[in-house]
Here is the input.
Amino acid sequence: MNKDFILRLTKYKRLIHKLKALGFEKVFSNNLGDAIGVTPALVRKDFSILHLSGNKRGGYNIDMLVEEFDRILGGNTPQNVIIVGCGRIGTALMQYSGFTSDDLTIVAGFDQNPKNVSNPSHVPIYGMDKLQDFIRENSVKVGVIAVPDSEASKVLDIMVEAGIRGVLNFAPVELKCSKYQCDSNCVIQNVNIALELEHLFYQINTQEINLERD
Here is the structure.
């Protein structure tokens, strides 16, 4: 599954839960496509990959979709996440209230100097010496890395060794889980904010050039 496909699945899940809460019993591919900004054909293709059936006249049954998407992506049980590196990015993530609506809970932060961290959130912050024990004792599967690039690789090794299965990396370096069998044990998503901004500027400049040519 590629990243775009998985992103669409999470959007489908949120939308389907909202429709169910509003009392809808059926939904059509064009409704779903309009709501998340894709074509009805792509919705049908995505659903066929997941073996979700519907028809042109009756659409898709909402209860069936809710059940299947909860099975695929996890139900409404909160998913625990830790953050390693409690600088500006780390503390900003700990304060973000939007995670609650997405069934995500930041359960702890970890830092080399936890006493020096300005922490306006309710999330507890511990020293790095407690990281592995916390992961194991709380069965945490996903963690965020927000440390300097020089520390990122070492932190990744510690997290994966303790049982972390997924990592969202905000450190300004691309991480690869070469020490472990990543295809089966560890998934890493690198978020390079500077690169994303460069890509955004490229898209803007390309649009402006095309408009000038027209």
In short: The first strand starts at residue 26 and ends at 27. The chain has a mean pLDDT of 87. Residues 3-73 form a domain with the Arc Repressor Mutant, subunit A fold (CATH 1.10.10.10). The two ends are 38 Å apart (CA to CA).
